[in-house]
Amino acid sequence: MKFKCHCGYLFVNNTDFLRFKGHITADQDLEELHNSVENYHISEKEYINALCNMRCIYQCPRCGMIFIDNDDGGFSVFVPARYVDMNSISEKVKKSPEEHYGENCRLLQSAGGDMWRGWIYGEWYDEKRSWEDVPLRRISINLNSREYDEYSKKHYDSLEEMKADYIRLADELAQKNLIRSARFWVNGKAVTELFREYS
Ligand SMILES: [Zn+2]
Asked: What is the Å distance from ligand 1's center to 124 Cα?
């Protein structure tokens, strides 16, 4: 699922552990949800019903606007109080990077903050695919800490260099206990000897 924020940021909701997404449950539904987690004997239907009572909530990493899923294909949209004038938002964010997860845009990140254990993915393609201008050759990083952003901005010309960066980064993050898994693909094929799982 994709949708656009008023500031132009494109939300792409196509994977797990999204930094801009959360789930909210009405207080009136909390007991049902609690029971479904505690009680393994409930039926699959009851479990799904409890999960369905959760709504998705998104916060724009660029301007901080909040979107709550209405379950009818639309959203209830909330503007952060510090932004009063919509026009000033667009002026402000035009100058900011695509994603910055500034102080006011981190509401939906893990309670663990920068110590949340994320993942890295390396993807290398020899040739560009039909919808791309250049072949995909990058390391995607899902961490709350901004310390490693430079890696995800890097476009590689050499597969060996990219692998070396990937391994160095995975080792460093593992040492700091900031990573749960690392994955590497070449031309869409998993390179399992470079996969790492951290408990
Ligand atoms: Zn926005």
From this structure: 30
Q: Ligand 1 centre and the CA of 93: distance in Å? A: 8
Q: How far apart are CA 49 and CA 62, in angstroms?
A: 33
Predicted TM-score (pTM) of this structure: 0.73
CA–CA separation, 163 and 143 (whole Å): 19
How is the chain split into domains, by residue range?
2-105, 113-197
> Tell me: the pLDDT tens digits for 115-172?
999 999 999 999 999 999 999 999 999 998 888 988 988 999 999 999 999 999 999 9
Alpha carbon of 165 to ligand 1 centroid (Å): 32
